[in-house]
Amino acid sequence: MNVETATETVDPAQGSCPAPLTETERVLLGHGSGGQLSASLIRDVIVPALGDATKLAGTDPRGEVHGSGGATETSPLEDAAVLGLGVVDVVVSTDSFVVSPLFFSGGDIGKLAVHGTINDVAMMGGDPLGLSLAFIIEEGFPLEDLRRITASVGEAAREAGVPVVTGDSKVVDRGSADGLFITTTGIGRRLPAARLSAALARPGDAVLLSGPIAQHGVTILSAREGLGFDGDVASDTRPLHRLAAAMLDAAGGSVHVMRDPTRGGLASALNEIAQASEVGVVIDEPAVPVPTPVAAACEMLGLDPLHVANEGCLVAFVDPGDADAVLAAMRSDPAGRQAVRIGEVVADHPGRVTARTLIGAERIVDMLIGEQLPRIC
Amino acid sequence: MNVETATETVDPAQGSCPAPLTETERVLLGHGSGGQLSASLIRDVIVPALGDATKLAGTDPRGEVHGSGGATETSPLEDAAVLGLGVVDVVVSTDSFVVSPLFFSGGDIGKLAVHGTINDVAMMGGDPLGLSLAFIIEEGFPLEDLRRITASVGEAAREAGVPVVTGDSKVVDRGSADGLFITTTGIGRRLPAARLSAALARPGDAVLLSGPIAQHGVTILSAREGLGFDGDVASDTRPLHRLAAAMLDAAGGSVHVMRDPTRGGLASALNEIAQASEVGVVIDEPAVPVPTPVAAACEMLGLDPLHVANEGCLVAFVDPGDADAVLAAMRSDPAGRQAVRIGEVVADHPGRVTARTLIGAERIVDMLIGEQLPRIC
Fold first, then answer.
1. Which among A196, B56, B111, B117 could disulfide-bond with B107, CB atoms 3.0 to 4.6 Å apart, if both were Cys?
2. What Pfam families does this protein's entry cite (chains A, B) (predicted)?
3. What confidence score (pLDDT) does residue A77 get?
């Protein structure tokens, strides 16, 4: 399959699917996928309804607009925002966690909530300083599970060195929620070297990946559906802020984009970056590490590992001159031991991601449209 | 009824009820009440499980510990935390909103989420600079309602001058949530004059209230149960940050405590302050403004207006020498037009709140134990 042929069937850059949201009357599970439907929910419903309440009018997502007095310089589609306080830039990110089941191989909802939010702050170049923690609890939820999950939040926060500074808990009547949902918000101070945005990738940039993909999604699927892979696979949930800081320390200004590919997988993250930066991305598919049991599970289930969620790896777009230095810095951090270069940015086919396969063909890597697996995080 | 007699039946300061949480095996609706059960959930389950992950060991909630490098100086029971960034102190607060119904007289869940979080930041002396917005949406939720609520978020944020800087949305399968839950987190810069904490009330302080109470709770109850009061009552949901700033501007160092009495009503807020500050509080019951239709509804339903939730008023504890100046500043702000002095702090009966009634008797005002009305906010 070559690019031209594939383009005839589906062209994600032109947004030919999914159908515009104005014709859909109800929220679908796919609107939570992290793929194209999620993006359309944000673009077609949430951002227009907020209007100028996001105070984004007039800011240039590619520029070096240095906020002051609460001005933001980030686009509504980033996972975190930078809030300029005049003397210091604060990075803010929020995420709700609705993962099912609550406990799984390698982690639980509490650990996921801490790591996920720390990582979103880190991907914008923030040094995470504190977290807020909000529980929505279903009446009848076992206190033992709540204690266990809260202890896991505490342990993850302690290991990461990021305290839980404030919180909230609400209880809803039985049947009005499914056990427990957690929303965490992270606050960080922007590292001086960091000027990161999904819109800053440039032709020539090397694409670096911190480690193996698709572990979290396959683990959740196996736990939920009783597929029995649990013994062989585990979620990769881990904090990435130290890895990100090491990369910025090695060559701050040369790191243009950092992103942790969670919902929607590596494919969605790369597509978002290609679209925001109006560049093409080409990856070498065989260079992308997929652990053997994960690859086997994906093959059995008909999943493309590039679409499967991760919770502990990052992808970075780096000036080619500093790519080796950044890669070395990544490998010196426990979270980046298996870091690899997986591709590069091209001026061709802006907004589109392609993969060179093992047999030398080139295929389009598109974003998930709807829901592959609900409640993955 | 005098204080001594009442003490024999129930002594909230000694925590004789509710039963310790270790003997309860499941979360009860009352754990979300904002009353004693809520406090015990936080104290007995959440704070111990977090351990030192809140990094509160060694900080003195009464002191002027000026945080640096991410240190917090607030107790886990406050509604917001102060995060010292060295050059600037950031105030952070988070709240999940699970109100039912989503639309009610005077507002909706979107407006409530914006105001509630702005108010928690303001009560700690923060000038709110930005909000994060996280939606948990049930599959099948009408897009029209989502647009309407998001527009309401935008309108409330615009009116308050506090932008929505980042967000998240998750969709859960039908039956796993009840329509829509919103979690907002507010970030503010601490105003220079502000050194506020529930633990800083002193004997002699005047207790000031910004306006009428019990409107929000009665409105929600009426809407939910079809009681037909809706035409006469409306939620008081409104932002209080400008009012709070005007008060601090009038006499910053003399304002010791500010609190917006939401879940659990004015009674719970006063009890929390009395306990945190180890002082007694005496209020003049007839001085507390309750709108006539709200009072009538409370009487019919057997509710004490002091226990009913508010979303647009604040109570402040102020040095008596500056109380008149602060009261004048309050009355000059639209949100404080009807501000009144309702009582004072005493050294007697620390940890306890009493009310002088119309006939001159004194009764104990205790915290709600369990749930008066679930999903009020």
1. B111
2. AIRS, AIRS_C
3. 55
CA distance B370 to chain A (A): 12
Report ipTM for this prediction. 0.89
Q: Which helix (H) or strand (E) holds B331?
A: helix B323-331
Structure token digits, residue A204: 């020539």
Domain contains A341: no
Verify whether the Cβ–Cβ distance A96 to B170 is below 8 Å. Answer: yes
State percent of chain A over pLDDT 70: 86
pLDDT category at A201 given cuts 50, 70, 90 is: very high
Q: Is A135 on the interface with B (CB under 8 A)?
A: yes
Q: What letter represents residue B170's amino acid? A: K
pLDDT band at A8 (very low <50, low <70, confident <90, very high): very low
Question: What confidence score (pLDDT) does residue B306 get?
Answer: 96
Alpha-carbon Rg for chain A, nearest whole angstrom, is: 20
Model confidence pLDDT, tens digit, residues A267-291: 999 999 999 999 999 999 999 999 9
**Chain Cα centroid distance, residue B181:** 19
Determine the Cα–Cα distance for residues B372 and B33; give it in Å rounded to an integer: 7
pLDDT (0 to 100) of residue A228: 83
| Contact yes or no for A341/A205 (Cβ under 8 A) | no
Q: Does B227 touch chain A (CB under 8 A)?
A: no
**pLDDT on residue A3:** 31
Shortest Cα–Cα distance, A58 to chain B (Å): 14
Residue B49, domain member (yes or no)? no
Please answer yes or no on whether B167 and A69 come within 8 Å at the CB atom. Answer: no
B136 touches chain A (CB under 8 A): yes
Identify all chain B residues contacting A49, using CB atoms and an 8 Å cutoff.
Answer: 146-148, 150-151, 153-154
- Residues 155 to 194 of B: which have CB under 8 A from any A CB? 155, 157-158, 162-173, 175-178, 181, 183, 185, 187, 189
The answer on pLDDT for A207 being more than 90 is yes
Lowest-pLDDT range of A48-62, A118-132, B112-126: A48-62
Asked if the structure places residue A360 within a domain, the reply is no
Does pLDDT of A62 surpass 80?
no
B272 part of a folded domain: no
- All residues of chain A having their beta carbon less than 8 Å from the beta carbon of residue B59 are none
What residues of chain B score a pLDDT lower than 50? 1-16, 56-73
- DSSP letters along B240-264, please? -HHHHHHHHHHHGGGEEEEE---TT
pLDDT > 70? residue A245: yes
**Test mutation, B56, B72, B136, B166, chain A, max A CBs within 10 A:** B166
DSSP structural state of residue B152: H
How close is the nearest chain A Cα to the Cα of B61, in Å? 13
State how far the Cα of B111 lies from the Cα of A315, in Å rounded to an integer. 37
DSSP 3-state percent helix, strand, coil across chain B (nearest 5): 35, 25, 40
H or E element that contains B275: helix B265-277
Expressed as residue numbers, the domain containing A80 is: 61-190
Provide the pLDDT for residue B36.
Answer: 81
Interface contact A373, partner B, CB < 8 A? no
- Count of Cβ atoms closer than 10 Å to residue B345 Cβ: 23
Instruction: CATH number of the domain at A117, please.
Output: 3.30.1330.10
Q: How far apart are CA A319 and CA A323, in angstroms?
A: 6
Question: In the structure, what pLDDT confidence band is assigned to residue A74 with cuts at 50, 70 and 90?
Answer: low
**Burial label, A17 (beta-carbon count in 10 A; 0-12, 13-18, 19+):** middle
Set of chain B residues whose Cβ sits within 8 Å of the Cβ of A168: 94-96, 183
A42: chain B residues, CB-CB within 8 Å: 167, 169
